[in-house]
Specification:
Number of domains of chain A: 1
CATH architecture of chain A: 3-Layer(aba) Sandwich
Number of strands of chain A: 9
CATH superfamily of chain A: NAD(P)-binding Rossmann-like Domain
Strand order of the largest sheet of chain A: 3-2-1-4-5-6
Oligomer: homodimer
Strand content of chain A: 15-25%
Structural class of chain A: alpha/beta
CATH class of chain A: Alpha Beta
CATH topology of chain A: Rossmann fold
Helix content of chain A: 25-40%
Distance between the termini of chain A: 30 Å
Number of helices of chain A: 8
Chain lengths: 217, 217
């Protein structure tokens, strides 16, 4: 059994796919949702006894590494909701992307975020002692959900705490074919987040599910 | 012999490396510089008779595909200088990146460009009938210059004219190991350009020369 991880917003496409993959890899996974019953139902649907479903706040309190898998439009509200449940030392993995779709715009465009990036906004909102790692932006939920196939891509992790990046890297690399790359400080998340819009542009042009690999490492 | 290409700003690191690679692949390459004598000297230094050196304006008039390889801080001035020499139907490949270094800032940060991106700024500055393709942002000049080694990366090409992308793709793919990916319309160049700052961040963290590959295509 690997460590226990929590997924706030775990009933969405990316959260559910991540829960499935991490449970398959031997993690105990606690899925959170605004509605605990919905989370329990989603957890049961995965069909792996290592996955349980609770409220977002309960999930946030249940693990040292908590993945935040809500849409960007719900990011600030959700962080405020779970803030009291995040123990000092918790790592919050912000996967949100400020796509223009959050305000009804095009998926190939991103919003300007006053803090610089969604990741930096998350860091500004969490309680002192909680470290934000930004990641998983460019990983397709469709491919992540397809457990029959290994991924063939990297995910860029950004944080001001390199030890936190290393810890999150170990977890996400439990997904077959997914490599984590330490991309730099949290301000670099601005670029990693925008790459989601780039991938969507390429997906439209090429009718594909693209991923990114960093060469030369 | 492949087609003739021109490289405005061809005496800089990326321009010179590109000239060397394309000449080795069988192109006739016309290098431009503000100082024609300097361009001729640089061309001679490559040691391939397929490379010649002239003024930037002469280079701009010499080929249907013209690579613009000056620093972003010189982009607008150079385009104004060569504008009259760009024939209708010319494709200008803008490789400039609005790194903060252009104004003395960090290489891991980019400037906001009023037109959206350096590529869009170029399109706004060229004469009517000239098409801008934005590309080569994330290709390391060091690796490109090392003709003993194939590259292992993609370059993202953005333009509002897909035929122009296809034409530029054929040229840049003459560089062994370099694949061109149609990344979308010119506004996507904003993201492709920022990825240069991301690569620099990773290069610093990992003491490497990173490149990018798009998977799933």
């Amino acid at each position: 059994m690997n460590e226990r991880v929590a997924i706030v917003g775990g009933t969405g496409a990316i959260g559910l796919a991540l829960a499935t993959r991490l449970a398959a890899a031997g993690c105990e996974v606690v899925i959170g949702s605004r509605d605990a019953a919905k989370a329990a139902e989603a957890a049961a649907g995965i069909g792996n006894p290592a996955v349980s479903g609770v409220s977002n706040s309960e999930a946030a309190a249940a693990a040292e590494v908590v993945f935040l898998c809500v849409p960007f439009s719900s990011q600030a509200g959700t962080i405020k909701q779970i803030a009291e449940s995040l123990a000092e030392g918790t790592i919050l993995v912000d996967t949100t992307v400020p796509l223009a779709t959050n305000v009804g715009g095009k998926p190939t465009r991103t919003l300007g975020v006053p803090d610089g990036s969604a990741g930096q906004q998350a860091q500004a909102l969490v309680p002192k002692g909680v470290t934000v790692v930004s990641g998983l932006h460019t990983v397709s939920a469709v491919l992540l959900a397809n457990v029959e196939h290994d991924l063939d891509e990297d995910t860029l992790l950004c944080s001001n705490d390199r030890d936190a990046i290393a810890r999150v890297a170990k977890i996400v690399e439990l997904v077959p074919g997914l490599r984590a790359v330490d991309a730099g400080r949290l301000e670099i998340a601005k670029i990693a987040e925008q790459m989601t819009a780039l991938m969507i542009s390429m997906n439209i042009r090429h009718k594909a599910h693209t991923g990114v690999r960093i060469t030369g490492l």
